[in-house]
Amino acid sequence: MAGLCGLKILLLWIEIISLANCQDSSGETGNGNGPENSNPSPPHTTAVSTSPSLSTVSVISSPASTAAKSTSPSVPIVSITPSPPHTTAAAPAMSSDTPTAAAQPPLISSAPTSVSTNQTNNSTTMSATPTTHPNKTNIQTDSDNKTSPAVTQLNTTVTPTTQAPPTTPAPPPQCSYTVTPIKFGFQINITSSTTGNYNITINEEGRPDTENKSMVQHSSQNSSHEIKHLKPCTEYEHSVTFIDTSAGRENIHCNSTEKDNKTTTIEMSKDDIKDATSCIPGYVCYQTDWNITSLQSTPNKIQDERCGSKTLCVKLGYNDICTDFTTTITSETCGNSSFNFTKNISIDFLNVSEINQTAPTELPAKINTTLPPNCKSLSIDYSCRERGRVNESKKLSELEPFTDYNCTGQIKDNDGTVKKTTAPVHIYIKCDFDINTKKSSTNTSIELSSTTTSKNCQQVPQNLLYNCSCSRHPPGYKITANNHPPGGTCHVTGLQPYTNYTCEVQPIYNNKRVPESKSYSVTEKTKSGIPDPVTNLKVTVPEHNVIHVKCDHSKNSKGPENKCRVRLITGGVIVDKTDTPNSNLEFRDLSYSTTYTVKVTVFNGDFESEPKTDTVHTQYNDKAVIGFFIFLIILIISVVVAVVVYKLYIKKRKESRNGVNEGVTLESTAIYMNVPPREWHHKETH
Questions:
Q1: Please, is 574 exposed, middle or buried when counting C-beta atoms within 10 Å of its C-beta (0-12, 13-18, 19+)?
Q2: Terminal CA-to-CA distance of the chain, rounded, Å?
């Protein structure tokens, strides 16, 4: 569709141009009431324009829908409005009675069949319904869906303007000015000039970087304007320009009566310099409307934005207070002409920030202050306030150590009038104490006595105390004693016997630990104490004349040694005494069938614990009994054996006696048998 619209617009412009050419070549004018009104031919329009300008061309075309395959023509509407200035147009001739109007741009129709003309004032509206023109080609869209040719309908609105008669341009305005040197600058008079706004430009000769431009209003034939704050005896370039607001015209440079547009300022006089109030503490200031960058001074001047661009200030020395001070101001541009100014410098010129105040480091406190040496009648009185207690004021002699103070001094004259107040001085006195500590101990306490001196505090403050604490391993086991004053004794009690302690002496002032002060440490060991008694004493008799002792005791004996001391007593007599680090002990080869008392204590090298006792009995002598029984058994066995042997002997004798008689008898009654010899018997068995 975008391509189709572009093609339509292109064809429309071709028709407008061709029709305009036809109208330019035709000079016929139709009659309004003649037969020409019924002539279907398009009207002839003659356009005469000196500078035709079409300000707006609008084409409105109803789109052809290719999707619906519409056959209705697409008719664009064109509206042309000429720009009114400098345009002469001739209205189209409708009839012979129609007067000729101002020329317009031509009205164009591709193939009009009827014309409707309405003319009101200086506007003409024409409507044409185009038909098929033999010399024109219908616009047809070539796409996937073919559409019928589009018929273009043109509506044109033309607004003609009447050509204005030529005017003669007005002559440019004229202006001139004069320059008169005055004090501090120039007076510029604008004379016989057009009223309006003017730019006045001033710069030092040959120095465009110093250009100063200002705009003034000239409302009468003559007006004067002052340009000040310039350098004396200095040549300046100047110019005045009229700001022309007419269209197409440039600003106009005014004529000057001065040669080369250059003028020199007048010389500076002493009266041009006035005394000024000091804008900076410790400075003397002077004011002038001359440009002070061309002025030098002794002492050297300073320029400060607090004083403005017209004030020149010089710094006072500390020794210049309470004296007559002379300042010399010199103009370099006027042949180094100089002027002297003398002023009495009172204490009011003193800059309190320059007063040297040295804060004290010892007690009694004293601030060393250096006042101007030429001010003989001045004195200073200080008052101090503790931080957090601004309503309480103290003198320097009342200050205490380890306290923050801000002290302010009042500078007074002989009559007591306060002239100045100094800047505050911060004071913090830290007494550097030297503590000499003596120590002594018992088995449960340590005593510390301290002697205190200080180099920067002549007297030890009354509110100074010491906090004593002793600690041992493991860390965290710490015992603290009550505070004691310097020269007193600190008792740390509740300690363990025979234990190493590290004791600290910490200064305390006003019940607060003294900040930034070191603690003083000493190491002390408590004396030996009485050890704890044994526990779980067990006495046994493993053998008839042996006693076994077993005892448990604490590993901390509260002394240098840790032993069990066992005493063996019988009949009130100590028969044995043994010290052993072991918990098991035996006593051997004791008396049989004897009662013994066992007494056990813990001995630490200095002290014994409370004893633990037990009583035991040894048994009979089992070895002697066994020997006796063995002897008795042997004896009995010997007797029995002897008896048996004797009986056997007697019996044998009896048998031997009876054997002779019986042998005789047996031989008479014996029966003999044939028994082979033993050798034969063996042979047979083999």
A1: exposed
A2: 154
Give the amino acid at 427: I
Residue that terminates a domain, selected from 525, 552, 586? 525
Are residues 344 and 361 located together in one domain of the fold? no
Say what the pLDDT of residue 32 is. 37
pTM: 0.50
- Phi then psi for residue 555, to 5 deg, are -70, -25
Q: What are 189's strand-pairing partners? A: 178, 224
* 106 domain-assigned: yes
Q: Are strands 255-256 and 176-182 parallel, antiparallel or unpaired?
A: parallel
Q: What is the mean pLDDT of residues 42-46?
A: 36
Strands 546-552 and 584-587: antiparallel
Q: What letter represents residue 47's amino acid?
A: A
Cα gap 125→267, rounded to integer Å: 79
Residue 170 has pLDDT above 70, yes or no: no
Tokens of 363: 């007690």
Assess whether 543 and 600 both reside in one domain.
Answer: yes
Taking the C-alpha atoms of residue 234 and residue 645, their distance in angstroms, rounded to an integer, is 177
**Quick one: average pLDDT of 333-361?**
92
Using CA atoms, how far apart are residues 383 and 390, in angstroms rounded to an integer?
Answer: 11
Q: In terms of Cα–Cα distance, which of 139, 70, 78 is closest to 109?
A: 78
- Whether 344 and 357 map to the same domain: the answer is no
- Say yes or no: 584 and 539 in one domain: yes
Number of folded domains that form the chain = 6
The whole-number pLDDT of residue 546 equals 92
Q: Are residues 149 and 218 in the same domain?
A: no
pLDDT-derived band at 412, boundaries 50, 70, 90: very high
What is the Cα–Cα distance from 183 to 274, expressed in whole angstroms? 14
What does the block give as tokens for 46?
């003659």
Arithmetic mean of pLDDT, 504-510: 83
Structure tokens belonging to residue 514: 């003294």
Looking at 16-30, 234-248, 454-468, 550-564, which range is the least confident one? 16-30
What pLDDT was estimated at residue 402? 86
Dihedral sign, Cα of residue 294, residue 296, residue 300, residue 303 = negative
Residue whose structure tokens are 């041992």? 472
Section 595-611 average pLDDT: 93
With H, G, I as helix, E, B as strand and everything else as coil, classify residue 664: helix
Q: Which domain holds residue 613?
A: 535-622
* For residue 7, pLDDT beyond 50: yes
HSE-up (13 A, CA, CB side) for residue 379: 6
Pairwise CA distance, residues 589 & 72, whole Å: 150
Strand duo 405-412 + 425-427: pairing: antiparallel
Q: Is the same domain home to 195 and 123?
A: no
State how far the Cα of 52 lies from the Cα of 61, in Å rounded to an integer.
Answer: 26
Q: Are residues 49 and 153 in the same domain?
A: yes
d(CA 609, CA 599): 11
Both tokens assigned to 508: 């305390």
Contact 275, 288 (CB under 8 A): no
Residue 245 is part of a domain; what is its CATH number? 2.60.40.10
Task: Give yes or no for residue 52 having a pLDDT over 50.
Answer: no
Answer whether residue 516 is part of any domain. yes
CA distances from 198 to 174, 178, 187, 222, 259 (A): 12, 14, 15, 13, 21
User: Can you count the helices (H) and strands (E) in the chain?
Assistant: 3, 43
Whether residues 603 and 587 fall in one domain: yes
Residue 85 has pLDDT above 50, yes or no: no
What does the pLDDT look like over 231-287, one tens digit per residue?
Answer: 999 999 999 999 887 766 778 889 898 888 999 999 999 999 999 988 888 899 999
Q: In Å, how far from its chain's centre is CA 644?
A: 125
Helix/strand/coil for 16: helix
CA–CA distance, 661 with 654 (Å, rounded to integer): 12
